[in-house]
Each structure stands twice: as C-alpha cells, then as structure tokens.
Model the fold of this input.
Amino acid sequence: MSASATKSATESAAEGADKPRYARVLLKVSGEALMGDTQYGIDVGTVDRIAREIQQACEIGVEVCLVIGGGNIFRGLSGAAKGMERASADYMGMLATVMNALAMQNSLERLDVPTRVLSAIPMTTICEPYIRRRAVRHMEKGRVVIFAAGTGNPFFTTDTAAALRATEMGCDALLKGTQVDGVYSDDPKQVPDAERYERLTYFDVIARDLKVMDTSAIALARENDIPIIVFSIHDSGSLVDVLTGKGRCTIIENAA
Ligand code: UDP
Done:
C-alpha cells in the first residue's frame, strides 16, 4: 500500500472515531449543575462551560435539544414542605427552569450557536411557546432548542419533561449529564466502593430503585425505546466523547 493510501486510511479511521453515534439527542441538565461551586442560583462561568460542550456537539453534526431543571433556584417539593400549596410551588419551580433556559441561551449565543427557548408555559415576551412542529423545524435548521418550564404541569419533574420531549422530537438518545460518570449502586461520594455500571436495562433501574431519573421518565423512555445515557457533565469534552462512543458513561436500554 502506498504511503498516501496508508495516510488516507489512517485519516479515515480518525474521522470514523469522531463520527457521532446519534443524529439527534436531548441533553438533560439539572439545575444544580449550573450552580458550579456555589450553593444557589446560576454560576455564569459554569453555564458557559456547559455551553461550550454543547457547541462541540453541534460542531460534529449532532442536533441537540436541551431540558434544564430548576433545582438550583426552586423546587416545588421544598415549597410544599414549608406549607405552600404544591401546585403553586411547582409552577414556581417551572418558572425557575425558564431563568436557567435564558441563561443557557445567552451563553450559547455568545458562542454564536443559534438557540431558541420554547416554553411549555407561554410567555411570549421572552421566548416562544412550545409547539412541537416548530421545535422540530428549529432542530432541522441546526438550532439548539431549549425546552423550558418542564412539561407545563405541576406534579411532574424535568426528568419526565426530558423523556417526553426526547420522544416528541424523535431523539436517538436521552443524555443525562450528572455530577458523576455513570450510574452507581450507591452514591459514590458517600460509599467509595459503590459499583459502577456500564449497562443497565430500564427494568434494572426501576427494580433496584437506582436513583437515575424518576420512574415515569424511565417508563416513558422504555416504552419508546430511547436509550438513556448517564455521564458526567463536568468532565471537559465528555459530551462529544459520549456521542462518539468513547466516553465513560452508563447506557440504559432494553435488553438485547
Ligand atoms: N416542575 C413541575 N413540572 C414539570 C417540571 C418541573 O412542576 O414538568 C417543577 C417542580 O416543582 C420541580 C421544579 O419544577 O421541583 C424544578 O424541576 P426539577 O426538580 O426537575 O429540576 P432539577 O432537579 O432537574 O434541577
């Protein structure tokens, strides 16, 4: 084989290594992931860093949409525990997700990544209302779509919103960016010898009550056969690594 032929084979192997496994994904980022080292609210530097991860994913040709939680600002359950009516508290939690979505849009746009925020609770002064067909169109045009306000209904979580939107958008995978590099048998920060799983079935997660996403989110992903990929959002380059099949993660799917 000639030197140039060898080179092109090497080059194409390298290209293949960076070829994404998924054409369209939904990334779920919890509100807590946006706090950085702070105890509350939005750390702009951290949001910027996650935005760069998303930019890299777009650059390798993956269509990305996002669901962002609100736990860094307000959770309905904590409001209810302090005596608030649960539904009102949940609406406040949904509003918190809108603030996070706007912060992420801002970070992405500063990187020149075209982004649209679509809210399940219409607030047309600041973002578009959620219309499924419009969201699909934005994605086809290469825009990052951020779904705000969860499902728009109290008594749900943004995990369920993530599984719902991933299904509606026809995503090939639901990526859950967490504080650790996969699913463990126990909290690895509390139990140092906790087992880390490479692969699990949806049934395993529900039966062993592993704290990955809430049960309704797992059930929805299972019913629609959307793999859930759990990885660390804090390791630089981890999103692209996971998308190209190189990253450390746990994949949850139906048994082969
Ligand atoms: N929420 C809701 N319905 C939804 C999504 C979210 O009522 O469809 C409320 C709920 O009160 C929740 C809060 O929004 O506590 C923030 O969302 P979540 O706790 O899922 O955020 P995360 O834990 O991912 O930061």
Notes: The first strand starts at residue 24 and ends at 29.
